[in-house]
Amino acid sequence: MAETLRDLVVSLSLQTDNFTRNIKSVNKQIAEAESQFKLAASGVEGFERSATGLATQLSTLERRLSLQKDAVTQYERALSAANDKLQECFSRQNDYAQRLTDAKTAQQALKEQVAAAAQQVRTYSATLGENDSATIAAKANLDALKAEYRNSCAEVKKLTGQNTALKKTTQNAADAVTDATTKLNTAQAAVRSTQAEINQCNQSLRLAQTNWDAAGKSIDASKAAIVTFGKQIELAESRFKLATAGIKDMDTSVTGLAAKLTLLNDKLRLQRKREACAAGGSAGAFCRYG
């Protein structure tokens, strides 16, 4: 119950936009799954090659693969967000670059107007006098243009600073895209590596199962052969009893001794076959053929 609840909480948390926390959660779960396998293998010689070990390893790898796919999803979301941010920064940079260009154009135009107005003031002062209404109006126009020009210079300065800052922001956004792409590639490579390990583990399990099946069949064949040998020995003894029925002086007569020798040879032959069968290997075929 606790395990199911924990998995549900983690699953829900991975649906949030907190990338750092999500990746940290995934990595912790991967470490937990691998620690459980190490715990199961600790103190057990040859655990990784045993049926239980291979099955546990396969379960661990499948869990790791699932978590690594979760990580890939998180990195894909991070890359998408980084690309969106880069596009936003690039658009703002272009917008402010155009604003700066327009401001500089306006500044230059005002500069030329100020120069023309100043020349007009000088001309009116020289020809009409300082107190002439035209001269006074020209001076007022010059002062207004100078004020507008100063404002234009301040705007250009502000926009220049903003453009410099936006260029740095755009470069940082581009670096973030590169970083996110690298991490996504690494995560995808980890998924492929784990999938390859799963394939290898499944192959080892199939091979082990084949060997276990073959060993089981060999044991069954050996048991059947031993039973058969027992019956053959019993048959040889019954033949001996039949052949020696009515013979006197079994241990001294030629017929009795010959029958006894035949029985001993049969027992010896069957006993050797039985031992060879029990030894396994190439004797398996020997057992089957009797």
Strand content: under 5%
SSE succession? HHHHHH
Quaternary state of this entry equals: single chain
Q: What class, by secondary structure content?
A: mainly alpha
Instruction: Report mean pLDDT, rounded to a whole number.
Output: 79
- Describe the sheet with the most strands: none
Uncertain runs: 1-16, 281-286
Q: Counting H and I runs of at least 4 residues, what is the number of helices?
A: 6
Briefly say what this structure is.
The protein is mainly α.
What is the element layout, followed by pairings?
Layout: H1 2-13, H2 19-41, H3 51-127, H4 133-243, H5 254-279, H6 283-289
Helix pairs in contact: 2-3, 3-4, 4-5, 5-6
Could you explain the architecture of this structure?
With 290 residues, the chain is mostly helical. The protein contains 6 helices and no strands. It has helices spanning 2-13, 19-41, 51-127, 133-243, 254-279, 283-289. Helix 2 packs antiparallel against helix 3 and helix 3 packs antiparallel against helix 4 (133-243). It is rod-shaped and about 170 Å long. The two termini are 58 Å apart. Residues 1-16 and 281-286 have low confidence and may be disordered.
Task: Describe the structure using short key phrases.
290 residues, mainly alpha, disordered N terminus
